[in-house]
Amino acid sequence: MSPRSLLAALFLFQLGAASLTATEVVWPTSMDRTTIHTPEDYLQATISENPFSGSYGMVREEGQRFHEGVDIRPTSHNPAGEPLDQVFSAMDGKIAYLNNATNGPYGKYVVITHPQAELLVYTLYAHLAKIEPSLKTGDAILRGKPLGLMGRTSAGAAPITPDRAHLHFEVGLILSTGFETWYAAQPENRKSPNLHSLWNGQNLMGMDPMLVLSRTRANLLDAVRSQTAVVSVTMRTTRPPDFVKRYPMLVSGDVERAAGWRVDFAWQGMPIRWTALEPGNALLPSTRWQLYAIDQSARKLLTSRKMITPDAKHPGEILTQNVEILLSGAR
Ligand SMILES: [Zn+2]
User: Fold this and answer.
1) For residue 257, how far is its CA from the centre of ligand 1 (angstroms)?
2) Minimal CB count within 10 Å: which of 16, 188, 231, 271?
3) Average pLDDT for 236-251
4) What's the Rg (C-alpha) of the chain?
5) How far is the CA of 123 from the centre of ligand 1 (A)?
């Protein structure tokens, strides 16, 4: 086969692979998806009035604060100015968590896991005015089924005013089933107990929701893998973190023989590639874990996200937190 036809065959193979599996996705609010032409059509701006402050990424406080989801605006209001839009499950899944109290920044929120997707992502729907009373944890839910009413519940630093009511939507990976142990061990959490078990936002690592919501069929594994790995750590543990069992498709090497791992992260802190390090591998760190490599072209972004320190020599607060949460699942 000539190199050219080999390339063509590879291309066709990839096209085939991409279309072999896909998960049906619906828009998670009453907004008609066919009316969306630009991001401004669905984004709800923060008080800054910049529409992109509602999108995903380092869009808050002049690029210094991370927004882990997308804020979708309402399409209709009642006479009091509150949204009339319903919120729907974006994909088939299972109700993982219902928070019916306004006791944190998410306010009233629902978390769904999606065992039928290419990998076990969660989706999260926050600031709801009301959660459907018929929903029960553990119940199966089909895409497009109502979860509640769009709203503005939040116990964050600044209340959400009626003109800024929205759905905060996230999609991503669950870091660790050891999260509660990790959380309780942090001195700064002594006065604020974890109210949300594994479904605390710190244990949920969101990616850009538009990787999923911008299409009617999405391959969730492809979406995760489409992110670039820009920072790596190495860790030493003979007990594999439960993350590698939950997401074997992100893992290479022999889990049973592993004495540690090289973990590659996307810029926001999602561990997207795990390589098992067998006993004696020179990459195994002498300490429990260490920063291994940084993509210098992403240095500014990694610094503002606190994945690394400004001198790029040490892990930052968020990378440290995520690695410690991941290791809390090594049991
Ligand atoms: Zn938001």
Assistant:
1) 41
2) 188
3) 97
4) 21
5) 13
